User: Fold these one by one.
Assistant:
Number 1:
Amino acid sequence: MKLKMITAATIIYGALLFTASCGNEGVKTETTDPAATSPQELANNQPETHGIEIKEGDITITSPLQKDLVSAGKSIYELKCQACHKLNEEKLVGPGWKDVTKKRKPVWIMNMITNTEAMLTSDPEAQKLLEQCLVRMPNQNISKDEARQILEFMRENDGEK
Amino acid sequence: MKHIFLKRVLPVAFLSAGLTGMQACKPKGTQSAVTGDAASKAYVAPGKYDEFYNFVSGGFSGQMSVYGLPSGRLLRVIPVFSVDPEKGWGYSEETKPMLNTSNGLIPWDDLHHIALSVTNGVHDGRWAFGNANNTPRIARIDLTTFRAAEIIEIPNSAGNHSSPFITENSEYVVAGTRFSVPIGDNQDVPINSYKDNFKGTVSFIGLNKDSGDMHIAFQILTPGINFDLARAGKGKSAGWVFFSCYNSEKANTLLEVNASQKDKDFIMAVNWKKAEEYVKAGKGVKKAVRYAHNKYNEQTHTAISTIEKEVLTLDPKDCPDMVYFMPCPKSPHGCDTDPSGEYIVGSGKLAAIIPVFSFSKIQQAITGKNYDGTFDGIPVLKYEAVLHGEVQKTGLGPLHTEFDDKGNAYTSFFVSSEIIKWNIKDLKVLDRVPTYYSIGHLSVPGGPTAKPYGKYVIAYNKITKDRYLPTGPELTQSAQLYDISGDKMKLILDFPTIGEPHYAEALPAALIAKNSRKIFKIEENKNPYATLGDKNARVERVGKDIHVYMTSIRSHFTPDNIEGVKLGETVYFHVTNLEQDWDVPHGFAVKGANNAELLIMPGETQTLKWVPEKAGIFPMYCTDFCSALHQEMQGYIRVSAPGANVPLSFSTGSTEPAAAQPSKDGSTVKN
C-alpha cells in the first residue's frame, strides 16, 4: 500500500524538521518544536483538524453496523459532503458513494477524508479521481472519529447490515 | 518647480522670521542617501514572514490597514467605518448594522488613530481600536478575525479626534472631542455665542476585561476648547490621561489665525482614578442622549445595533482635583508619555522646542497648589513648576514623539520634514534624518507602551511628491522605514499606504499570528438564515419577500436555478459557505444588484438584498476564485411580471425540461 510509503516519508520528513525548516505541500506532519518562537512556526503549529493520517491498526470494523455511528455519519454527510457527493453511482463534483466501501479499504476512505492533501499528492488512486473530477477535495475539518462515522454511513449505503 | 521653492525657501523664510540658531534640515531629493545594505535589511524572502504587524490608520478611507515590517507588504485592509464592496462590508444585511448611528447608516468616516490593547502597559495582541473623526465613533477590531467586532458612537462630541487612546491595562479607551459644540437641549444658538454656549467633552469608554465589550463609563465636561491627541499614563502615572488642547482662545472663525494668538495652549491632565471615585460617590449626572452601539456576533455572523439613551457626565466644578491644565507651547498636537510614565512630551506644532513635563513635578505642583490662575475654573499648573526641561535646537513644528528601548525619543517635525532622536533624561539631540517632505506621525514598534521593541521608526508622510511614479494629480500616501538599531537612523524602505495614515502601531507578529482565526465552524453557525447542508437549501416566499437559502462549496451553488420571482418582490440571498478550509471564501454577485457582492468566509452565512427592476433572466456567480471550476460556479434567477403564472421553484443539477403546468402561485416546487 502506498500509505506505508507516505508513513515512511513522514518519519524521514519529521526528522528533517529538526535540521531544516522547509515547507512541503501535501506531506504534513504533526511535529512541533517546542522551542519554536518565530511567527512562521507559530502559524504552522496551529492545530488543525486535517492532515491526520489514519493507519491500518486505527480502525475496527464490526458487524452488525453500529447504528449510532451510522446516524452521526449521516448528519455529517448532509452538512459537509452532500453538496458534492451523491449516494448513488452518479458523479456530481466528486464521485458518487455507491459501492465505495466495496472498492476501497476503510483506511483509504478515512485517509481521503482526513488526510486529503497527502492523498491527492501521493496516492495513485486518489490522483486518478482528481484527474476525473478536476476539483481538489476540500478539507472539511473532519476529525478521525467523525471520519469513522462517515465510513459507517457509507457501509450502510452500500447495503451492509 | 514649486516644490523646490517650498523645500528650499520655506525653511529659510522661517529662519529669517527670527527663529535663528536652529539647524534647518532640508529634505533631500528622490535619491535620498540610502546605504548599500538597505535593501537586505527590509527584504523578507518569499515564504518568510515579517517580524512585526503594523496597524496603520486609513485616514479618509475610513479603513485600517495592516502591513508587515520590515517588508512593507500590505497584508490586509480591514473595513471599519466605510463601506467596502470588496468584502461586502456595509452592504450585506448582516454588516449594515455596524455602520448604524443616531443619524442612520453612515457609509463613510475618517479613521485617524490606532490604539492596540495592552496589559501592564505592554501589547497583548487582543484588539485594535480606531476612531471615527467625523461622526464620532470608536471601533474595536478583534485581532483573531481582523474584523470590526464593535462600534460605539460617542454622544456630546463633534470631531472625535483625540481618540482612541488606551489606559495601562485597557481599562478605558478615551475619546476627546475635537470641536466643542453646544451640549444639551438648546443647540440652535448663534455660532458667535461660542464662548457662552460651546462645551467640550472627553469620554471614558470602559472595556470588559475578557470580551473587550465597550460601554461609555462616563464623560467629563470641559471648557469649550479643541482636543487634539491624548496619551494615558503608565507606571507611576497609570491613573492619569493627558490630552493636548488647542484653541484656548475659544475662537470660532479663521482658527489658523485666531487659535494661534497665545504663546501657550494646554495639556489637560485628567486623574481618571479620581473620576472613578466621583462616579462611585454619585457625582455623575445622567444626561439624555442618543447614540448607537453596534456589535458583531461571530456565532450568528450578524451585527445588532442598539440605540442607547443615557450618558453619565462629570463636571469638574463638582469634582475637584480631577482635572488640571498645564501650559504647553504652542498649539500642541502630540502628547506622549515615555515608557516609564514619568515624562510627558508635548509637541507644539507651531513651536521650535519640545517641552518635556515631569509627572513627579506635576504631583508636587498639585500638592503645593503651584497654580498660574485658573481656566474656566480649572487650575492651571505653573509651566516652570511642571517642566522637566525643553529640548532645544530641534527642527520646526514638532508633532509626535515615540520611544525606543534605550531611553531615546523620536520626534517628527512637520515643517522642517525630519525625525529627531533625542535622549529623554538629558534632553540632548543625538541624531536627525530628513524625511521626504512633510512627515506627519511616526511609529516605533511598541513605542507607546511600557516596553518598546525599538528596531525601526516608521515615518508616515503627509505628502508623497517625488517618491514614486506619478499617477495623475494625486499620489499614493506613503510610509518610510528607518532602521534605528544603531546610533544613526538609516532610511531603508519606502512603501505606499492608503488614505492618509495618521497614527499607527506595530507589535511582534508572534503575539497575533498564533491566535489567527482560520475558519468558522459550520456546526457553530447560528445565523437564523443559515443553510446547514444542501438538503436544507430552498426558496421561500414570505409576503412580498423571497428568501433564498443557498449553499456554496467548490464549485457550485445550491440551488443554482430559481424561477417564479415576481417584479415588486424583494429577494434575500442567504448564502452559507459550507467550506471548512482556510482561505476559501466564496463570493456572490447578481447582475444589476444596486448593492455590492457578498464575500462569505468558510462556515459563515451572509445575506444580499436584491430588488429586481425588470423581468428577465439574471445570472449570479461566485466572485472569489475557488477552484479550477470557479468560472463554472454560477446560476440563474428568473424574474417574471407581477401577474405571471410562474410558480416559485428551484433546482440544482436538474436537466428536466421546464414544467409545462405551473403549480398554484405561491407554492414551492422542487424540480
Number 2:
Amino acid sequence: MSDENQPIDFLGAYCPLPLTHSEQIVIGHGSGGRLTYDLIQSVFATHLTNPLLEQGDDGVALPPIDPEFEIVVSTDSHVISPIFFPGGDIGKLAVCGTVNDLAVMGAKPLYLTAGFILEEGLPVDVLEFIVSSMAKSAEEAGVAIVAGDTKVVERGKGDGIFINTSGVGIRPRSLHISGRNAKVGDRIILSGPLGEHGVAVLQARGDLGFLSDLQSDVAPLNHLIAGALEAGMQDRGNAIHTMRDPTRGGLATTLNEIARQSNVGIVINEAEIPIQETVISVCEMLGFDPLYMANEGKCVFIVDPEGTDRVLKAIRADKYGSKARVIGEVVSDHPQKVLLKTMIGSTRLVDMLSGELLPRIC
Amino acid sequence: MCLGVPGKIVEIYEANGLAMGKIDFGGVLREACLTYVPEAKVGDYVLVHVGFALNVISEEEANETLALLNEIVNLEEELPTQD
Amino acid sequence: MDTKLRYGFRDTKLVQAKVRQIQKLVTRPWAIMEICGGQTHSIKKFGLDQLLPPEIEFIHGPGCPVCVTSLELIDKALQIAALPNVIFTSYGDMLRVPGSKGDLFSVKANGGDVRVVYSPLDSLKIAQENPRKEVVFFAIGFETTAPANAMSVLQAEAMRIDNFSLLVSHVCVPPAMRAILNSPSNRVQGFLAAGHVCTVMGYWEYIPIAEEYRVPIVVTGFEPLDILEGVYRVVRQLEGGTHEVENAYSRLVTYEGNRAAQKVIQQVFEVCDRKWRGIGTIPKSGWKLRDAYLKFDAEHRFDTQAIETQESPLCIAGLVLQGLKKPYECSAFGTLCTPQNPLGATMVSSEGACAAYYLYSRNLESPKMNHV
C-alpha cells in the first residue's frame, strides 16, 4: 500500500504465456479452441490416421456401397473401472465392443466413430496409451476410425475417461442373422472359455484382493465370424442362424434372450462348456457362477445341425476360437427357457442375470 | 451360509502381529489369516472363509471318505443289482 | 490333492452310485432339513433334489445370515451408512437386502459411501487408510463368520484403530434348531448340520439336541457327494429308528471344533437374545460384543433413531425359513416378488430359499422335477 505512488516500471511487465498443459487434461482441452486443437494434433492425429479422418470437417462422407449390401449401425458406450486391466484397456474394449456388435449381426465392420469424455486431471500419456491401443485394435479388425469428438468434464464428474464408439458395417442382403432365427434342432457353438473378462476386471479393481495370471479375453471377432459365415454357406441360406456375443450378463443371459426371441427351448451341457480352472476358482471363492460372468471376445453361434461341423472347424481355425465347443442344442420343449444338464446328471434352470453380480459371503 | 473353499498354503508370514498366509485356490492367490490354524504348514490345505483359515483339511480323512465312497461303486460292480 | 479336493466330491459315477444306495434304503417319505443356505444353494445348483427318490423332501433351513438379519438392524445399517462421515462396509449380498425403505444400494445412490469387502480385515484396512472417517463393518453371520469378526475387533484394539466399529448381527445354529423342533407345526425329521459352522464349533453342541428331540443329525459338507452322504446317513438312521449325531465331514470337522477360534469368539462376544427376520426373537440365539469392546459397537457409537419397521404383508419368508411352506406356495413368488424386486430377504440372497428356487427351478413342469 505504501508503494501506491511509486511509478510503475512497465519494462518489467508482460502477459504470462498460458501453459501448454501437455501433461494432464484440463477443462480447456474441451473448449474447442487452441488446447483442443493441440490435443487432437499431438494425441489423436498421431495414432489415428486415415484419409477419411483427415478430411477434418464436421462430419465424414463415406463412399457409396454395393446395392447388394445393407448398412448395419451399432453404438456402445464404454465406462469401465479400472481403465487398464490384464489383457486390455478401455480403448481396446471400445473398439472391440463395437466391432463385435457389428460382426455378430453378420456385418463386415468398416468404420468407427469415437467420442471421448475426459475427466480433468487425466494424464495425457494415459490418454495417448488408450488411443494407441484403439489404433492397434482397429488395425487388427481392419476398420478405420473416421470421426471423433472430445469433451472434458470437471474433476469428480467422470471416471477418468468414457468412450462412446459407433460403428458402420455392411452385410449382404441375402444373409439373415437374428436372435429370432434359432430353430429346433440347431446346435449351439461357444467360441471359447467363459468369464475371463469379468474375472480379470474384478481382479484389477483390487477390492477383493485376489491375484491370478488371468487375462481379459477382449478381442475383435470379426475375422473369426467372417470365417464361420463362409464355412456356413449352403444352398438354403447360411447354416448360422443366430450369433451373439455374451458380454454383460454372460452366456446365461444371452441364451435366455435368444430362447425368448425365437420362442424355443435351449439345453446346454455343463460338461461341454469350456471354462478355465482359474475362472472356476475365483467364482467358487466369491460365490459367482461363470455362466453369468462377462466376456468380451466370445461368440455364441446357433447353427443348423448339417453345417455344425464345418462351422466349428472354421471357428477353431481362428486364433480366438481354438477352444470352441458345441455346448448344447435348441429344443421344442420348455420354450423360452434355458436348461443346464449338470455334470452329475441332473437338470436345472438357467435364468437371466438379475441385477448386479454380488459376491456371496456366505 | 458359509461359502468356504479349500486352498493350499504357499507362504506363511506375519503382518501386524497376525499369522498370515498366501493361499493358492486353484491358480488364484489370496491372502488369508492363519491365526486359527497355528499348526498349519506350507503345503497344507486349509478351508478359508471371509479371509480366515478355519481349519486344516485332513488329507487322510479326505482320502478315507473317497475310498469309502468308491467302495460302493466297486461293490455294485461285483454284485449287479436287479434294476 | 488339489483336484481331488475340488472335483473328487463331484464325481458323476460316485454321485449316481450314492443316489442308488439311497434309493435302495428308503422305504417311506422323510423330511430332512439342511440348516445351511450354502447347502440349499448346492442342492439347487447341482439339482440334487431331482436325483433323489421322491420320498426325500428337503426343507430349507434358516441358515442364511443375510436372510435372517432383522429388519430393525438393516434399517439401522441404512441410517448409519447414510451418515456423511461414514464408510459403510459389508459383504456383497447384504447390499440388496430391503429395509423398510430402500437398501444399501439406494443409500449408495444417494451419496453414501458403501463398499463391498471380502473380509472384515479388508474393512479394518480401509479404516487405517481413512483415519478421518468412521468405518463400520456390517458383521452378520453364523458361527462360521464369528472368528473373523472377533479377530477384526482384537486387531483394531491392538493397532489402536479407533475409527472402526462393527454393526453386529451374529446368530447361532443350535438355538435355531431347538426353535424349529419346538414349533408345534414342525415337520423336520432329520438334520444335515452345517459343515462349516461345525468346523469352528465342533459337533458336541448337537448331541443333547439329538438326544432330547430324538432326531438324527449328520454334520454335512457342501459338495454333491458330501450332501448325498449326509442324506444317506440321516435316512439310514430314520429307517433304523436311531437318533445319533454323525460326522460325514471328517476332513474338516472334529468333535471339539477349532478351540483357538472358539476362545477368541468367547473373548469378544457374549450370548444374547436375537431377533431373526421372519421368525421372531429366539432367546440366547445370538452373539453381541462384550462390554469391554463396547467402543467397537456401531450401535453404541452411532445414535440411531428407533424406526418403525414394516415387512411386506404378502411375504411368507418366516414360514419358508421355518420349513413350513415352500417358496412356490407363496402368492407373490415369481410375480410380485423376484430377485430384481424382492419383498423379503429369502428372495434377496442367492442363498435364500426363495431365490434358489427362483434361479434354479422356477416354472419347470413340476416344482420338484423328480425323475425328469
